[in-house]
Design goal:
Shape: globular
Radius of gyration: 22 Å
Number of strands: 12
Organism: Micromonospora globbae
Oligomer: single chain
Family: Belongs to the bacterial solute-binding protein 1 family.
Pfam family, one: SBP_bac_1
Keywords: Signal, Transport
InterPro entries: Bact_solute-bd_prot1 (IPR050490), SBP (IPR006059), TAT_signal (IPR006311)
CATH class of the largest domain: Alpha Beta
């Protein structure tokens, strides 16, 4: 059995065990309270448990692991769906709604999430989910001693990468960039930030059914990525080693082993930074640079809560999560970014998140994570969809394939994958 097959089997077994455990707990307790399936674990799961501990009824939280979709499909098939799930992709919300698995939230909860983001959770004119956690996905992490002056524009970033790579080749110093290319979503996050800068109007069009994945916006974005990824010495150990490097290791290469100067990823990298930083120096982050100074793109992600069909308790719990004070324990604990733009900034005990919350409210170009909006398998997972295609492209441009040929191959693969998933041409 392949590694993904073993992962899927473990997910199904976990779903069956969780369903049986929840049913047993319900019988033993004379009422099972609210069952909530989440994708979170570790540093995110503990503060969420502190949040739900303040709810008026018992809440049983199950961590479904990375493949929450497979987990929930198994529970649905077994007739043991939880009351609530917190999903990392709006595409799952609309898909489940079309299948009749979810309860509509009528009337739609009123909380301060930008209209463009809230509408991603609509299907057939009805709201089926609410955003409960946001992610700022346009950051580069670095040590100020290694990079006193961050680049202000994309051209500055490319020039800096070339200069640092030349120095590394000559003197054996740190590489300019660390990248967790073994995790395909890291590469799609690069793609989305560049796309939001070079073609902001074409960004949302790529999430639609008539998306042109061989068109000019995609080609221009891939050209720009090839410009920086193909720099000789850009990554510690080269492109092949980068394809074996996972996201957490890429952050460690900057803040601990110091084999690289910068690593790009979202605000959630802060937990890895804090856990693995070496010495007293405080790591810093700067915005993904755009074409003009001070006008970089801002790509956001998020987790949305949904209630499964037939669960009144689930609907009530989802509505409770939109309350102004529901996530107060997590705000105080740090590591949480609210999607609600009316949450006072002074409630953030975490200064990093306070700054990022302010950026989300003032960004000129704000776009939601594109790969999370794509249909079916095109959305990406280990070894399939847009994740695999971006890994193939990365392997090409770091392996000596001409940029024009690498772009041609990638756009052909993207267009075919989009057609097969019913998400473009």
């Amino acid at each position: 059995m392949t590694a993904p097959g073993r992962l899927r089997r473990r997910t199904l077994l976990r779903a069956a065990a969780a369903g049986a455990a929840a049913a047993t707990a319900g019988c033993a307790g004379g009422g099972r309270g609210v069952q909530v399936a989440v994708v979170w674990s570790g540093g995110e799961l503990a503060p969420f448990r502190a949040v739900v501990a303040r709810y008026g009824s018992p809440v049983h939280v199950v961590s479904a692991g990375n493949d929450i979709d497979a987990f929930l499909r198994a529970r649905q098939l077994a007739g043991t769906s939880p009351d609530v799930a917190i999903l990392p992709r709006p595409g799952l919300v609309t898909e489940y709604a079309r299948r009749g698995w979810l309860s509509p939230l009528t009337p739609a909860p009123g909380h301060g999430v930008p209209d463009g983001l809230a509408a991603l959770l609509d299907s057939g004119g009805r709201r089926y989910g609410v955003w409960v956690k946001a992610a700022h996905k346009s950051l580069f992490w670095h040590l100020p001693s290694a990079l006193p002056q961050p680049p202000a524009t994309w051209d500055d970033l490319v020039a800096l990468t070339r200069r640092l790579a030349a120095r590394a080749r000559r003197d054996g110093g740190p590489a300019p960039l660390a990248i967790g290319a073994a995790d395909g979503w890291v590469l799609t996050d690069w793609f989305e930030n560049v796309l939001a800068d070079v073609a902001p109007d074409g960004y949302d069009a790529l999430a639609g059914p008539d998306a042109d994945w061989a068109g000019r916006p995609v080609r221009d974005t891939l050209d720009r990525l090839a410009e920086i990824w193909s720099v000789d010495g850009a990554f510690p150990g080269g492109g092949r080693r980068a394809l074996l490097t996972q996201y957490e290791e890429s952050i460690i290469q900057v803040v601990h082993t110091r084999r690289a100067v910068m690593a790009f990823e979202g605000d959630f990298a802060d937990s890895v930074v804090r856990r693995f930083r070496r010495g007293p120096e405080e790591p810093a982050a700067f915005r993904f640079p755009g074409s003009r100074p001070g006008d970089g793109p801002l790509v956001v992600g998020g987790d949305a809560a949904v209630a499964f069909a037939g669960s009144r308790a689930g609907v009530d719990f989802v509505r409770w999560l939109t309350g102004a004070d529901a996530f107060a324990p997590w705000l105080r604990a740090g590591g949480y970014l609210s999607p609600d733009t009316v949450v006072p900034l002074d409630r953030y005990a975490d200064p990093v998140r306070r700054r990022l919350a302010r950026e989300m409210r003032t960004a000129g170009t704000l776009r939601f994570d594109l790969s999370d909006r794509l249909p079916g398998p095109f959305t990406g997972s280990d070894g399939v969809g847009i994740w695999r295609i971006m890994q193939d492209f990365f392997a090409d441009v770091t392996g000596g394939v001409r940029a024009s040929e690498a772009v041609r191959r990638a756009t052909r693969q993207l267009a075919a994958a989009a057609r097969n998933a019913g998400g473009g041409r």
